[in-house]
Write a structure and sequence with these properties.
This protein has about 250 residues and is an alpha/beta fold. The chain is about 40% helix and about 25% strand. A six-stranded mixed β-sheet has the order 6-7-8-3-9-10, with helices on both faces. The protein has a four-stranded antiparallel β-sheet with strand order 2-1-4-5. A hairpin with a 2-residue loop joins strand 1 and strand 2. The chain is globular, with a radius of gyration of 18 Å.
Amino acid sequence: MISVTGLHKHYGENHLFKGLGLEVKRGEVVVLIGPSGSGKSTLLRCITALESFQGGKVIVDGIEVHPENEKKDRDYAENIRRVRLKVGMVFQQFNLFPHMTVLENIIEAPSKVLGLKKEDLKAQAKSLLKRINLENKTMSYPAELSGGEQQRVAIIRALAMKPEAMLFDEPTSSLDPEMVGEVLSVITGLVNDGMTSVIATHEMGFAREVADRIVVFDKGEIIEEGAPDDIFLRPRLQRTRAFLSRVNG
């Protein structure tokens, strides 16, 4: 479903990725862990072309996103559009439109981008909101919601585009601790339904529960990957053990 090979990413003199590679099968749940600044978020943004990269390949369901030095204007723009229809993304910040109600936030993109009828989308949105126990918030504005409620709406907004895969970039990092569980339960429901997912998180218990595979990042490279029990109970590398020791206290 998602293939990243030989990825190179520069920030000025900082060469973050030096030939990074990652494969994600359809239906697989891959969880990215590692210190802040190690490249997890950047990889997700490269997959959806929110960040350009300087070498390598990113292919999503057969659609290639070209590196910065190989952009071909029309093909490049069309491929990005197609990739973003295939892959939904949920960010650390909720990014809801503050001037729109919850219902309007959810139906805006599929009505404009997919050309679907708003009346049909409203029924779908209400069904999705009921699934996350927010059916009574359809006419509320983002400022009237808690952080956990806003992030759950952001997830539903991404799902309204009917993506084939979801990327989650530290989806609970901006939440108060008591709100983390309600967001993680929504994500758990999605992965249990078979949604192809790549999740960057510092929530180690959640990672161990939902992942098919754990991928450990450090300083722009993947240093270790494997089944959750292998990574959390039998990590091979001292760098992995040191990271887990820090996050687990």
